[in-house]
Amino acid sequence: MSDPYLWLKALHIAGFAAWMAGMWYLPRLFVYHTETEPRTEASELFKVMERRLLRFITTPAMIVTWLGGLGMIALAGMPGGWLHLKLVFVVLLSGVHGLLAAHVKKFGRDERPKPARWYRAVNEVPTVLFLGIVFLAVLRPF
Is the pTM value of this prediction over 0.90? Predict the structure, then answer.
């Protein structure tokens, strides 16, 4: 019960679940935010929601995910090629996270950097990466 690897794994999975919740919700907020006029009550509410979601859930969850994963690697090593590919997907997901964080800042300045259709498309990217990460972690195909 005191196996550090299992504690890291549980922390890693919990962090990943929370990270993905934010990665799925932020682009949806952007879709709705894009459709509001700057400096309106609705726009100001979206700014608060986006900023808090990023600052208090999505970014801390990403950090927990990375720390848990790196901790597991430190304890168990790199068990196979599947993990290398999984890490590529996680790095890409981290890049999408950075992109979304930049858009939170732009919306905070009352900019509308992209149309709603763009955010609907971007909303699918975390899902594709999520599926790749989960299937690689569970199936370990190589």
Answer: yes
